[in-house]
Amino acid sequence: MVALQVQFLLIPALMSIMGAAQHMMQDAALLRYIDQRFLALEKRLEKCNQDVLEYVDEFREFSRTALSRLAGVGTEQAEVKREVEHLLTRLEQAQRDIDYFGSITESNACVEVHQGLLEEQLLEEAEEKKRLKVMLNASCDHMLAGIRSLKVVKKTGGKHGSWMKDPGKNHAKIYLLSGSVNNVILEFANIMTFMESNQTLKARRVPLPLPWEGTGHVIYQGFIFYHRHGSLNEIVKFNIQRRKVADQMLLPGAGRIPAYQLSPQTKIDLAVDEQGLWALHAEPETRGNIVITKINPAAMAVEHSWDTPCSSKDAEAAFMACNTLHVVYNSPSRGSSRIQCVYDVLGALNAYTNPGLHFPKRKGSHSTVHYNPKEKQLFAWGDGSQIIYKLHTKQK
């Protein structure tokens, strides 16, 4: 009986011991598995490190090879440049030889001009001149012979600006446009009102929706024509009485360089004479020489253009009078202004220099010089002063 009781007591103890042993075996197996996984991970990390080192070595070798090849390319480029320069020298020499042999070769085949083609070209030139004369209604028979006197009407505003009258019939109003960038015109009833000391209080202010640039604007037939600020070569036509933009156009080739070297604020200078509206500007393609363009003010379109030999270097202003360009030159130190290049678009005068046409009694610079064909006078802006020059003319 006692032995049976002992057996019943030993069985749970044995089972407990066996369970503990089984748990220990499972833990040992788990530890072995974790250890194997760590060993595998270490091997993979070691392989990855070896691969990185190999990649670094390969990249260094590639860098050395690339730098070596680039150095070789630089050397080859210098050699190619020397060969090209040598070839250009030989080509220039060959061209000179060809020109020389061509000049001494007496060959009728090289110098003959087809008689019919020559006659056709002459006929076309004559027709073009005839068309231009009709377009310009060329009734001008006088030319500028000198500048007789000056009158300083007023001194108001800064260094840059312009003032003018509309050259149309029965127009007595004076217009003042101060500054090289602005959008307000001051309109005065007449020149006497303008000359009064408190003239700005009696002026009618006309705001422009688009500001102007430079000082090359003109007033013609009740409209102001001006170069729009911020644009390359846009010309705006603004109705002064109705206070609205009437039309706009682009002037090809203009706006890239100043029209006059000594007035860099003006890229497009508009002008009016007996034949209507003109635009004056300079182009890089003409080596800075002044270009004349005739504009149809009603259609706002280009009618014709002329490349002139008059340089914009040391020029401060210009004006048109009787189909003829007159360029005003000065010195950078602001000496005495003078007209030194004249160009007649109809070819009656061609282009010539005339250093005898000096502006009288005054040293300084002009921001603008505009011709009024009705009064045969120049309206100029010089160092803040509004000036009138009277002209002396003679028959062409």
Please provide a written account of the structure.
This protein is an alpha+beta fold. It has 2 domains: 13-96; 136-395, Neuraminidase (6 Propeller). Helices cover 34% and strands 35% of the residues. The protein is built from 4 helices and 21 strands. Strands 14, 15, 16, 17 and 18 form a 5-stranded antiparallel beta sheet that branches. A 4-stranded antiparallel beta sheet has the order 1-21-20-19, with no helix packed on it. A 4-stranded antiparallel beta sheet has the order 2-3-4-5. A hairpin with a 4-residue loop joins strand 19 (368-372) and strand 20 (377-382). The relative contact order is 0.11. Residues 106-111 have low confidence and may be disordered.
Terminal residue distance: 162 Å
**CATH topology category name of the largest domain:** Neuraminidase
- Give the tally of structural domains: 2
CATH architecture of the largest domain: 6 Propeller
User: Percent of residues in beta strands?
Assistant: 35-45%
Binned, the helix content reads 25-40%
Determine the structural class based on helices, strands and strand pairing: alpha+beta
What is the string of helix and strand elements? HHHEEEEHEEEEEEEEEEEEEEEEE
The dominant shape is: elongated
Indicate the CATH class of the largest domain: Mainly Beta
Would you identify the regions where 5 or more consecutive residues have pLDDT less than 50?
106-111
Average pLDDT over all residues: 84
Give the helix tally: 4
Give a count of the beta strands, DSSP E runs of length 2 or more: 21
Describe the largest sheet: 5 strands, antiparallel
Radius of gyration: 44 Å
Pfam families: OLF
Protein name: OLFL1 protein
Disulfide bonds: 140-322
GO cellular component, one term: extracellular space
